[in-house]
C-alpha cells in the first residue's frame, strides 16, 4: 500500500473518530446541562423567577447585543463586566452584609477576621447547595433561602437601574461603554435579571453528587468557594506533556523524511498567458468588496477600541447615541468574518475553472447573483443588528431579523438562513466547474479532492449555527456556536487554504506535484487531528461536564504541534519568491503567505497555547489575553492568507498590467508591523495586568472599572493607537492598490474601444 493511500486512510479515520467524539460529548452536554427550572421559589413556594422569565430574559440579553456587551461564563466582549462574575460578587456582598446586620448588628467589613470567616463559610453553604427538586409531573423547582432572596433583590435593583437610564449610574454605564437606556422597557429588564441570575446560579451551584459547580468552579472567586478543580490542574499538566511529545514526534518525522529538491521553474510564467474566463473576470468584484469591508472593519475597530477609554463618546462626540459599543463591536467582529470569507469564496470561484479548464453554462450569471446575495446579507444583517440593539424590534422579530447575541454569528435567523443558502450556491458553482478536474487521474487528484471536500464542509458546516433555537439552553448554544466558529473558520477554511496554495504553486511549476500531494494530505491529517476535538477547549466552563476538560486540553495541545514547524514553511515560501525572474509578479502574494506562517506560529501557536490549558483559561478567559490571541490569529493568519490568495487571483485577472509594487510593499509592512504593535504594546500587557488582578482579588475584579479604567490600563489602551494607525494605513494602501488596478483596467478598456471604433471607421 502506498504512503499516499495510507495517509488518505488516516485522514478518513481522523474525521470519523473526531466527529464521533464531538457528537458523543455533545450528547453528554445535553444530558448534564445546567437545568432551567420551572421556577425558582422561596421556602413558602412563592415564585421568584419562572422558566418563562429566564427564557425571555435570554432573548432580552440577545437583543441588547448579548456577547457584544460584557460576557456570560467568560464569553463575549471585554469592556463591560462578565455578568456572571459581577452578579455573584454583588450577591455575595449583599448576603454577607444582610447576615452581618442580623447577627452582629453591623456591616460585614467592620467584623473581625474570625467573624468574617464564619459568615463566608455560611455563605458558601447556602449558595453552593444544589436544591433542585424534580416533581412527579416532571416540573423542576429550585428553592432559595430567605437571605439569598433578599440579596438577589438588592442585585436586581442595581441591574434595573444600570440597564435603564438612572442618572445615579450614568458614570458606571459610561465606564462599561453602555448607552443610556440600554434596555428601556422595565419588564424586559426584569426578565433580563432572571437570565443573568440563572447564569450566576449555574456558576456557583454544585452539580449533584459533586464538589464543583456546573461551570467547573468558574469564575475564580475564593470567597464563594470557586477555586480550580483537580481536573483543571491535572489535564493542564498532561496537555503540556502532550505538546512536548507531539513536537518531538513531528521533528523526528520531519528529520527522517525525504526532502525532494525543488523543480527547475519554467522560463516563462505558466499562468501569465492564460486568458481569464467570463466567470473568473466576474470574480474581481468579490475582491473589491472584500477590501471595502476590510476598510470598514478597520474604522469600526478604531471606534470600538476608543470606547474602552471614553465609553459613550468618540473624542467628545456623543457617538454612542447612534452607534453604541455593542453595535460597533458586532459589526467589527462580523465584518472580519465577512471580508475574509468573501476573499476566500472569490478564490474558490476563480481557482475552480483554472483547475478544470472548464466553464459551465451560466457560471458567470451564478457568480454575479451570488455576489448580489452576499451584499444583501451583509448590509441587511448589519441594519437588523442596529435596529435590534436600539430595541425597536419585539423579541421574536429580533430573533428573526435583528441581533442573535452570539459572537461571530450575531446576524438574525433569517440572515443566517440566507447566508447558508449563499454558501450552498457557492458550493454548487464550485462543484459545476470543478467536476472535470475531479475525474482526472493524476498525481494531484488527492489534493483536488481534499480541496473539494473542504469546499463541501465550508458550504455545509455554517448550518451548525441553525441548531440553536430561540430558547436553547446556553450550554448547548455555546456547543453549536463553536462548531461554526472553530470548525468552519479554523478547521475547514484552513484545509481549503492549504490545498489552494499547493495547487497554485504546482501550476506555477515551483513545487513537485508528488511532494505537494503528500504534504497537503499529511498537513490535513495533523491539523484536523487536534483541530476537530480541540474545539472543546472553548467549552471548559460553559456548563459542560468535566470530560470536556480532558478531551479539550489534550487535543487543543495537539493543535499547536504542527505550528511548531511552521517556520520551515515560511522559509520555503520566502525562497520561492526568487525562484525565477518572472516570480517577481507573485512576490507580494508569496510574502503574505510568509506572514501567514509567521502569525500561525506566533498568533495561533504561542498566544493560542497561552490561553488553551484549562488552568490558564480558568484565570484569563475573557480577559485581553483572549483579544491578543484573537487579533494575532484571525487577522494574522486568515486575514494575511486572504490577502495572499486575492493577489494570486488578481495577477491572473490583470495579465500583463504593471502593478504598483510600492503600494503593495507599503500595505504588507504597515499591516504586519501595525498588527504586532497593537498586540504586543497594548493588548497583551493589558491582559497581563488583568491576570495579576484575577489572582490577587478574583475574576470579577479584573473586569471591574477599578482595573479597566485604572491609569495604567488606560495608558496601555492609548498606546495601541500607533499600531492601529499604522495598520489602518496598510488597509488604505491595499485599497489604493485596487483602485489603481481598476483605473488602469478602465483606461485599457477605453483605449481598446477607441481602436475598435477607428478600425470600424476605416473599413467604412
Could you say which overall geometry the principal axes of the C-alpha atoms support? Answer: globular
Biggest sheet, strands in spatial order?
2-1-6-5
Report the total helices: 27
Rounded to the nearest angstrom, the radius of gyration is 28 Å
Structural class: mainly alpha
Count of the separate structural domains = 4
Low-confidence stretches: none
Q: Mean pLDDT, nearest integer?
A: 90
Blueprint (SSEs and pairs):
Elements: H1 3-32, E1 39-41, E2 47-50, H2 51-63, E3 71-72, E4 75-76, H3 83-104, H4 113-127, E5 132-134, E6 140-143, H5 146-162, H6 170-175, H7 186-204, H8 230-256, H9 278-282, H10 284-306, H11 325-356, H12 363-389, H13 395-401, H14 413-439, H15 445-461, H16 474-507, H17 513-531, H18 547-560, H19 566-576, H20 587-611, H21 614-620, H22 624-654, H23 661-697, H24 699-702, H25 705-708, H26 711-718, H27 721-763
Parallel strand pairs: 1-6
Antiparallel strand pairs: 1-2, 3-4, 5-6
